[in-house]
Amino acid sequence: MGDKRILIVDDEEILRDVLSDLLESEAYQADAVSTGADALDRMRERQYAVVLLDLMLPDIDGLEVLDEMRKLEQPPTAIMLTAYASLDKAVSATKLGAFNFIAKPFKNEELLLAVKNALEHRELLEENRRLKSTLQERYGFQNIVGKGAAMRQVFDLVAQVAPRRSTVLVEGESGTGKELVARAIHAASGRASSPFVAINCGNIPPDLLESELFGHVKGAFTGATVTKKGLFEAADGGTVFLDEVGTLSMEIQARLLRVIQEREFRRLGSLENIKVDVRIIAATNTDLAGCVSRGTFRDDLYYRLNVIVVKLPPLRDRTEDIPLLAEHFIRKFSGENHRDGLTVAPEALKVLMDYHWPGNVRELENVMERAVVLAPGDVIDAALFPRNLLQPPPPAPVAPGGGAFASGPDGSPEDLLARPLKERVGEYEKAVILAALEKTGGNQKKAAGLLDVNPTTLSEKLKRLGIRDSK
């Protein structure tokens, strides 16, 4: 254990003895040597937390020792000692990684305080290292399961952009793992030990979202009894993940654009600019370019977010990954539920492979958790799956008025090109929403659940498509 072991390097025998007695009286373990060569040999043999290093040594200069120390796997924290204190020496030692610089003669209290601070500094660095390692283990690429070509492209792109500070836009349907990718980018970046702050823009009412993102000062609005930090301020030095960024109001889009461009913002009700260093990762399950063309999303913000785009394929387009994902979730939920040795029956695996997975990976995760919990033995069979997995896939959607989207009335694909794509897609989207509202008796909340979108998102779609609000 080197957590409290200290190495004293000084050519004065009396000082070595005095320092050894002083440190051991404070419950530190102290070793002492008289030359730089002996110091380097000791540090290669055993781990020290702190080294008290004299600048003037009989064989090699203390700065040379400090420079060689940096090559060790876990170098000790250095406190430089010298009877020839100078600014130049202090600057040189600091550049080589010295934590502190103390001139002789010094008071015992001064030296003990320096050692205490050095140990606390070392402990903080070690805690940050452990935290970063934990984040990478929990949210690293190894937790994004996939072996197909589509996911390999995602892995390669994420690994390439993670160390940079560029804004990233993650595109994909609901349930494809957009937040998991965002966390993996953060965990593999230089910001891993700083906050990762995630917010679902579609889940917070627009009148509250501005305060959540940017904070407010006391008295900014009714009920603002205290000054509050926003999420951007809380994430300073780290990453802000904006999920469902396409639902932002035009006003908040303008404020977000300012944060990206100027790296500053104002709390609601304040005139003071606050500088912030954050990386923005945005995600959307909608076509932002289409939103720009419809005038619901700012084109200047779109181009700011659209620097690096990571496209996540839906699960139906990466069926080769389903066995891997199923096995991954079995391991995960077996551990949480204290069950070992579970496997998937071949016919059950075929059901998983044949299903169309409208809820994507999130839906598969829920299915496997249910199966792990309910399995009476060691084999998961198809009887444990929800009934909808055992039904054939739904027929191709039909447009209002009976025209199939798969082809024209005469069965030829040319009829599909008779009208613009946007018009066709709008008709399909409207037909699906109307079907969901009809099935739920006009209840927007239930319809949103059926469509696997947020109620706020559905409400905005109703307005955009000219569908009268339901209850």
What features would you highlight for this structure?
5-stranded parallel beta sheet, 4 domains, 45% helix, Rossmann fold, 16 strands, 471 residues, elongated, Helicase, Ruva Protein, domain 3, alpha/beta
Please describe what this structure looks like.
The chain is of the alpha/beta class and 471 residues long. The chain folds into 4 domains: 5-132, 3-Layer(aba) Sandwich (Rossmann fold), CATH 3.40.50; 158-311, Rossmann fold; 315-390, Helicase, Ruva Protein, domain 3, CATH 1.10.8.60; 415-465, Arc Repressor Mutant, subunit A (Orthogonal Bundle), CATH 1.10.10.60. It contains 18 helices and 16 strands. Strands 2-1-3-4-5 form a 5-stranded parallel β-sheet, with helices on both faces. Strands 7-10-13-6-14 form a 5-stranded parallel β-sheet. α3 (62-69) links the parallel β3 and β4. α5 packs antiparallel against α7 and α13 (322-336) crosses α15. The longest helix is centred in the N-terminal third of the chain and has 32 residues, at 108-139. The radius of gyration is 31 Å and the shape is elongated. Mean pLDDT is 84; it is low at 399-414.
Give a nutshell description of this structure:
With 471 residues, the chain is α/β, with parallel strands linked by helices.
